[in-house]
Amino acid sequence: MADMLFTAEGVTKRFGGVTALDKVSMEIPRASIFGLIGPNGAGKTTFFNTLTGLYQVDEGKFTFDGKPLNVKAPHEVAVVGIARTFQNIRLFGEMSVLENVMVGRHVRTKAGAFGAIFQTPATRREEAEITQRAHELLDYIGLSKRAGDKSRTLAYGEQRRLEIARALATDPKMIALDEPAAGMNATETIALRELIERIANDGTTVMLIEHDMRLVMKVCQHLAVLDYGRKIAGGTPAEVQRDPAVIKAYLGGAHTEVTK
Amino acid sequence: MAGMTGILQTKRNQMIALAVLGVLLFILPFAAGALGQAWVRILNITLLYVMLALGLNVVVGVAGLLDLGYVAFYAVGAYTWSLLASAHFDLHYPFWILLPLGAFLAALAGLLLGTPVLKLRGDYLAIVTLGFGEIVRILMNNFDKVGLPWSDETYNITNGPRGITGIDGLNFFGFKISKGLELFGLQITPLQLYYFVFLAFTILSIIGVSRLQHSRIGRAWQALREDEIAAKAMGINTRNVKLAAFAFGALTGGLAGGLFASMQGFVSPESFGLLESVMILAMVVLGGMGHIPGVILGAVLLSAMPEVIRYAADENMQQKIFGIVLIAPEVLRNLIFSLAMILIMLFKPAGLWPSPEKK
After folding, report:
1. Torsions phi, psi of A34, nearest 5?
2. Is the pLDDT of residue B122 over 50?
3. Is residue B208 part of a domain?
4. Which of A171, B33, B54, B194 is 20 to 30 Å from A190 at the Cα level?
5. Does the pTM of the predicted model rise above 0.80?
6. How many helices (H) and strands (E) does chain B have?
7. pLDDT band, residue A245 (cuts 50/70/90)
8. What domain range is B274 assigned to?
9. Which ipTM value was assigned to this complex?
10. Domain contains B338
């Protein structure tokens, strides 16, 4: 078995009588691109939210980088090395493009208020490092020219890429992208695909939650398919595409089963 | 304003502008003194408001936490000074103990307010902070008869609504500011000396606050203001960051409070009402939230404008123009003041001098 960065074992989450996640298990190899797909309401977001500490699991466990992942508060997720982007872009709109990425460095730096007020050498050095790293990341996603602009003035596709750069600034071992291609045109999607592949090549594992099947099938090495809170299929894109359960879920076969 | 910032692009022009500003700020108290010491007092009060607005700007403008009880921290600083440097308890501690102590106690009060409101935002936060401001004022008002459950005796701590009189002025290691100073034949009045002290503290506040704003913690404050959920996902511990904002805002307010008490020589609870908090908030909002030059402009305009209008709306002036006194000066003053605020909000909703679009 390859080196696994992340595993979920029998993860169950209930909201009252509704079982949103039912014994979901999956494994993500290091430096790979992993796709989490499923129809609307399948439990993708719930899975993501339990993983990132927004909800606590009822049963099952996560392992991350060889250690049990036990996140009590959302801000601890970035500390262990999982960064995320948001389905409905959540940039710091009034801050500059550069500052957005600099915020990402927060979790890996430690200058305090005292250092800031008295501009101690350690703080200045750290601040220079933060700025330099942020510029590098803007280069990486091709937004250097907009560094000084407020991030809300960026075009839609640029905002998506900036969110990725901000997440990368936290030095994540795994970056989780929540529907990054939503609302993108064909050219933007191709640019996004290249960016995702580059990130994985550079050693950061990518977890992709996505509706765009063409993108998922092209870019991912492994997939997990959720439907009604259960994992109905998993494997390589080719395997998943042939799986009858997946075809049923996507083409609405499940309804005939329910009404029978 | 755009043209003005354009000229200030080069380093050389910036230095020249700074030098001109320095000379102006130096001459100002003497020019005002020529008109009368009351005008110097207005200058000093303006400087205190600049400090207060800068402090509140950390909380409201940078971290995005609406605080309607900010004047409470001003009160904590002022009462710390008044109780420990006056005839009231016959204590006379020096400034280098009292100013830091007042700032520290105010910061502590900031944490005290910050802790229960961590999960509140917007209107709800405003209501609780408003309540906090009132609680502090009412405490000052009623702490002249503090009783203990096991005895009938009451203790007078704050002297209640009568306030505290006979407060020590600033006293620099034996040199009493209240005596004034004669330098090279130049007579400098106590109020003018206070001006220079306040100016020094204001400049220190500006430097401190702007360094904080452009630091790791300042960016965390702004991230919190822009999107709390995204800030958490970036690994920012929003609880600590919020508490730091409350504490640093309060610290500046406490410092200004101590300085106020030392100049005024008298404090009473009525100086620290809700209207004061609202006024400081208006300075931040009208000037340009989160933008330090804008906030300073807002503070200067709003603290100087009522005085200028007071002069312009004078009964004599009306008598001259209309032949009769149409509206009582006090009413007219508030009327013009409100009108100006409405106009600014209509035509400059982001404030008079908001942060620039491109950095």
Report:
1. -115, 130
2. yes
3. yes
4. A171
5. yes
6. 14, 8
7. confident
8. 24-288
9. 0.91
10. no
